[in-house]
Amino acid sequence: MYRFLLSRQWVILTLIALVLIPVMVELGFWQFHRHERRVSQNALIADNLRAEPVPVTELTSPGHTVPRADYWRRATATGTFDTAHEVVVRRRTNADDRVGMHVLTPLVLDGGRVVLVNRGWVPAGPDQKAYPDVPPAPKGRVTVVGRLMADQTTGSSGIKDLRGLPPRQVMLINSGQQAERLGRPVLGGYLELTEPAPAGGSPEPIPDPDHESIGAHMAYAVQWWLFAAGVPVGWVVLVRRERHDRAAASAAQAADGPSDGGPGEAGSAEDASAARAPAGA
């Protein structure tokens, strides 16, 4: 009844179904884990943005790698902006997805250590090789508040660290690179400036990171698991349909087969006898 399952076509189809089920289940768990990471990250961002700011020197030091638990942590720093060593970071977008540059200004702290401050976004000029029009940083001793971020690398950001760029232009915000350029100890990571607000709204402040949306990862996970459940159901449906079609074909073949002695067969026998009889019999 089910011998057709041993045919090459059905063996291949069954093997494909057996492979698809665990693959789809695994894809579902992959999306589920992405959902969990997104929820965890949203909670981390919300907690760190709500926390009271602490001195940046309590969170990082020269050569320090900012841990994920301190990302977006609000921190304060007091010092003097070193505008002579200010640089811009190429190919950055603002809240409206316009491509421009971020303004990175060293803030010299008491004792000579430096913390990098990302003051915000400015549009790029017509000439990409020219230094853009950047509003000056506040003069004198200032206290800033910002979100602590980790150093950027090609591995973490996917941005290539290009060489041979125009003067005072970089691709990544990296305290190690800036320490070599400045000849000063630079605290690990950098601050995204939130206070004080820039005069005239420029540089354009970097918006708070999104910590509300969770994406569609959970929906994708459920979708993959439904697909995995649908594979055996579909296989059973196809098997039953094939069995029904084969049974119907066998019944039709039996109905259309030769019968035991009919008028046609009797006539044929008589004709054959007459043909064999001698002439004049």
UniProtKB/TrEMBL annotation:
Its main location: membrane. It comes from the Bacteria. It is found in: Cell membrane; Membrane. Residues 248-258, 266-281 have a biased composition (Low complexity). GO terms for cellular component: plasma membrane. CDD domains: SURF1 (cd06662). PROSITE patterns: SURF1 (PS50895). Residues 246-281 are annotated as: Disordered. The chain crosses the membrane at residues 12-32. The keyword Membrane applies. The keyword ATP-binding does not apply. This is SURF1-like protein.
